[in-house]
Structure formats: C-alpha cells, structure tokens
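Researcher: I'd like a structural prediction for the single chain below. Treat it as a standalone chain; there are no partners to consider.
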Amino acid sequence: MSTSPHLSVVVPVFNERDNVAPLVHEITAALRGRAPQDGGDFEIVYVDDHSRDDTLAVLQALKAEVPELRVIHHVTQSGQSTAIRNGVKAARGEWIATLDGDGQNDPADIPKLIAMRASSPAEVKMFAGWRVNRQDSGSKRWASKWANAIRARMLRDDTPDTGCGIKLFERAAFLELPHFNHMHRYLPALMQRAGYRTVSVPVNHRARSTGVSKYNNLNRALVGVADLRGVAWLIRRGKVTRTEEI
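Model: Treating it as a single chain, here is the predicted structure.
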C-alpha cells in the first residue's frame, strides 16, 4: 500500500464485534487486485465509537493480518457523524467511501460507485447509495419512506435515500461542510449547498446477520425534526461565490 492511497474506506462502529471481521474481509475482497484508479490503492479506516463490547480488541487483532487496516478509537462515545468525520480527517485518500459497520451495505458496490465517478463530470463530488430493495423491518421501511418524503420536500436535494450508509465522496469537499451531530443523514443536501453536484446510485442492501440496531423509529423522529429545520436554515443562509485569480 502506498503512503497516500487513492481511496480510503471509512467505517464507523459501535458494539459490532461480530460484524467487524466479515466486513473487513469483504472490503479487501472487493478492492484488492484492482487498478489503483479503480479502488485497488486503498486503506480501511475503522472508527470505534467507544464500544462497550470487545469490538476494539477484534479490530486490533485484525491489523496483524490486514495491512490496509487502520483503527481510530474515540475515548468517549460521540455518535456516528463524529465518527465519520474523524475517520475522514484521519484518512489519507483523496476519495472516501463510507460503509455502515453492521454489514448491511455491500462492499462489492464500492467499485460500482467508483465506475460511476469515472464517467461523471468533475463537479459531481458525491455518489450516494440508493437502497432500492431494503432488507429492514416493515416499520423501519415505512418510517424511512415517510422521513425521506418530508426531507425531500423541505430540502429539495433530489436524493431518494439520503440515509444509505454507502457513499463515495471527495475528501476535500466533505471537510468544507458544516459539522453537527447527525449531519451524516443530510450529506447530499449539504454537498449541494456547498455548490457541488451529487448522484444517487442503486446499490445492494442486506439484512443484518448479527447484532442489534443502534437506532429506533422514535429517536430518529425526535432528532429528525430539529435537524431538518436546522439544515433547511443552513441552505437558506448559504451562499456560493465563484472566484478567479487575475
């Protein structure tokens, strides 16, 4: 692996000890042996959000057999958005792919997003996964559909599934975005606010095989209302100014 890989795969985790090793091996299987510009020059950055199980110990043991793996540990639990941001800040790649740590996103879709990037204009800075065949409970699918409809009406971000964990984006563009708790649910809208284009790409979605979800419909709804109002305010107050050097 080069000192500065082209791609960094960032995975936030909290209490996912049984999902860590299978997902790490799926990531390496999806990317090893590919051309550098197609994802073959990569690192994996796991961010452990102060797990209470032995997730961190499992990750530390995996480093001995997976040279691409790096591990960042939160000394206090800080949430998924902070874990993603700290992973991106620590990443050395020019482009970032993110995956949820529960194994429901398919790492085999990362090359698909990279191929879409290769055929897209330079102003497209984010390729967002779109779970067209979700493998969640009926109540979770209904809640997500309801939330996506409200968000799309308020933010007009033209993104059918903003909550999908698998995304590909330019690191520098991401670090320009305002940071706040739960921002990961609004990344396409925030990228567009910054003056960039985003594209939604259909991806695979899998049922959780082990562990339990860290969210429920009620806590998503309670924080979602305040977040939506805040993001809508940010969009209204945002301004992109083109510059040129003369």
